[in-house]
Structures are given as structure tokens and as C-alpha cells.
Design brief:
By secondary structure, this protein is mainly alpha-helical. The protein has 2 helices and no strands. The longest helix has 20 residues.
């Protein structure tokens, strides 16, 4: 029962995110921001690679 509720909550959350992301705002980049890492943050390699990939996508999408 709890698994069904969790799955429903995830589906509902994803649906709401899609609705908000596809709304017409006039500026497609209001939802996207580059991730800034503090010098004191400790990242594993995979996390750092994901941040770099995200920042590149934001940079290429929001010109």
C-alpha cells in the first residue's frame, strides 16, 4: 500500500513539474540556473561530471 502511495506521489510531482516548466513565461530560462560549487564542497567525480554537464546544457540553452 505504501509503495502505491509513493509511486502516485512521484507521478503527481512529475506531472506538476511538467506543467510549471511548460508554461509560457516569455523567457525560457527562468527555471534554469547554473550550479555554483563552493570551494569547501567535496564532490565525487560523478557528481562533478553531472554538474558540468548541467551547466553546459544551461549555457547552450539559455543564450
Amino acid at each position: 500500500m505504501l509503495e502505491k502511495q509513493t509511486a502516485l506521489m512521484r507521478t503527481s510531482s512529475a506531472f506538476l513539474m511538467l506543467i510549471f516548466m511548460t508554461s509560457c513565461t516569455g523567457n525560457e530560462c527562468t527555471w534554469a540556473r547554473k550550479i555554483i560549487v563552493n570551494e569547501h564542497d567535496v564532490l565525487v567525480r560523478s557528481t562533478a561530471e553531472q554538474i558540468v554537464a548541467h551547466n553546459r546544457k544551461v549555457g547552450s540553452f539559455c543564450r
